[in-house]
Structure formats: C-alpha cells, structure tokens
C-alpha cells in the first residue's frame, strides 16, 4: 500500500528578529491510506509547524512533502489551496463555525469553494449532518 503522505527530512526555520528558530529538524514520516497517527510532543517541539506544513498552510525550508502524489514543497499558493480543498480535512479544537449562519450552511461552505452547485451542496450537507446524528439541527 502506497503512502498518501510522505515527509522526507522536513526542516523549517523562522527568523524572529535577529534569532533563527529551528522549528523542525529533519522530520520524516509516512502515512498509508486508512492509517491513523498521533503527533505528540512537548510545547515548542514543532507539532504545530509540522501540521501547518502537512495541511498545506506553509512550505518547509528544506525537505519534501508528498501528499497523494503532489510534492507540496514545490507548488504555488493556488495549488496549495486546491489541495486543501480536495485532499485535506482539518479538525479544530474549537468549533470554527460561522456564528451568523446555520449548521447546514456551515457544512455547505467548503463545497461552495469547491464549485459544487447549490442543490448538490444542500443535499451533501444535509446527508453529512444526518449521518452524524445532527439532521434535526440543520437550521440551528
């Protein structure tokens, strides 16, 4: 089974004033389809930096990251946005919902960015909410 995520020697440096911060120092890992993994470590150990790179929100300083066949270390911002939209899901500690809109509209939003038509967006969002037991909360 091929890896859907393959990181090889990821390095990330940040400049903070006159100090160079080495947030990642040669991280390598593989994730195969269907696998789950946990990234654990002490505060300041680079977990968030690694997640930002793996989530296509940032580029590594060195090394490579391949996500389902795309080397994200070499693609531009628009391709990163496409990958985030089509290949990557984020689970946040906070809800990150738009407060002035309904549950179904919050679920529809990524589908809007993906260019899915209105009726299909509503069908998919409704089905997803029903699948997780929230069908009674569509308008909440």
Give the name of the CATH superfamily of the largest domain: P-loop containing nucleotide triphosphate hydrolases
Order of strands, widest sheet: 2-1-3-4
Total strands: 4
Describe the largest sheet: 4 strands, antiparallel
Helix content: 25-40%
Secondary-structure element order, N to C:
EEHEEHHH
Tally the structural domains.
2
Structural class computed from helices and strand pairing: alpha+beta
Q: Report low-confidence residues grouped into runs of 5 or more.
A: none
CATH topology of the largest domain: Rossmann fold
Radius of gyration: 18 Å
Mean pLDDT score, rounded?
Answer: 89
Q: Which word captures the global form?
A: elongated
- Report the CATH architecture of the largest domain: 3-Layer(aba) Sandwich
Strand residues, percent: 25-35%
Count of discrete alpha- or pi-helical segments spanning 4 or more residues: 4
**Broad CATH class of the largest domain:** Alpha Beta
Detailed description of the structure:
This protein has helices at residues 47-54, 77-87, 103-113, 118-131; strands at residues 3-16, 19-32, 62-67, 70-71. It has 2 domains: 3-87, P-loop containing nucleotide triphosphate hydrolases (Rossmann fold, 3-Layer(aba) Sandwich), CATH 3.40.50; 103-137, no CATH class. The termini are far apart. Strands 2-1-3-4 form a 4-stranded antiparallel beta sheet, covered by helices on one side. Helices cover 31% and strands 26% of the residues. It is elongated, with a radius of gyration of 18 Å. A hairpin with a 2-residue loop joins strand 3 and strand 4. By secondary structure, it is α+β, with helices and mostly antiparallel strands. The protein contains 4 helices and 4 strands.
